[in-house]
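We emphasize that the prediction below concerns an isolated chain of 376 residues; any contacts that depend on oligomerization or on bound cofactors are therefore not represented. The input was used exactly as deposited, without trimming of termini.
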Amino acid sequence: MTMQTTSSGRGAIELAGVVKSYDGGETTAVDGINLKIPDGAYCCVLGPSGCGKSTILRMIAGHEDPTHGEILIGGENVVGLPPVKRRTAMMFQSYALFPHLNVRDNIAYALRVRGMSRSERYRRAEEMMATVQLGEFAERLPGQLSGGQQQRVALARAAITEPRVLLLDEPLSALDEHLRIQMRTELATMQKNLGITFVHVTHTQMEAIALADLVVVMERGKIKQAGPAREVYIAPRDRYVAEFMGGQNVLRGKVRTINGVRATMVGRGEEPIEVAFDGRHRLEKDETIEIAVRRDDIELLRPEKGKVPAGKAAVSSRIVGIEYQGNFVKVMLDATDDVAFIAFVPERRFFQDPMKVGEVVYAAWDVEHAHLMIEP
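Result of the prediction step, given as a token string:
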């Protein structure tokens, strides 16, 4: 049995000019946020500790109100309304299950508080247990469940109130790696079955990419980029997003020549690097620009094997570290001054002709695959 809940457009969220300050304005946790989350979307808010992501979650939930700005759910400004009137539900990292209640009673607890009859709340709990595949554990106490099963109980308890928005505060952080991957699939399936808006706070990049329709990357109380997961990953707007999301190398240099939708830039080593750019963007000679190149797009070439092939750009660098990662080998290079330039070389390709720490190589990539980062 699958419980299907739809919010009929009422789960859309909009944050308009939201600011949250503490200590009389001395500390700003959220600084002028504008964000729209469509109804029924799975949104992951991502960033390091202290960036303001959990504060946003608490303000949507109604546990805190913004210092300035509006929070709209389903078009209604909910600032000042308690959580129950917002029809939001929140699942905390600790799960906070009642240890003396079995699975059925934990899930049905919120309906009991609302005065629903025993028979009706148990009927609803049975439906929800079927949705999260907990029917056979109905009589068990939380202490008799695995971490993943406890998480499903916490999700079911939050969802049984039929919220229009379900808020999740780092729900997978307490689980081991294998279980986190398994629970990502279950979260995505449950969100689709329920059909309601999920807002999920995390500091784990791969978790956000795997789950979200909408990824929101934050730094110091501000949104750095928001968009579909693939767009944020492959087309970061700036160095912070590129490096935080991972999987990208960033090179900085000054524009030397411009020819149509091609340019060359020179960086640390004064080697000209060919750059492709959208004709809608205007570049100027001597302008400082940055490009992002995916680590799995890097090909390592030995200089003695000849010139870099046509259509590729490259930088000369020295190998400073090699790590075997199973299906690929992580090769660290000194192509930049501040952080390592990294190539993910397929395992079979690397061991056909292994390289060593200290070797000088060309790190090459298709010119079209590099992304010129230009903030809107």
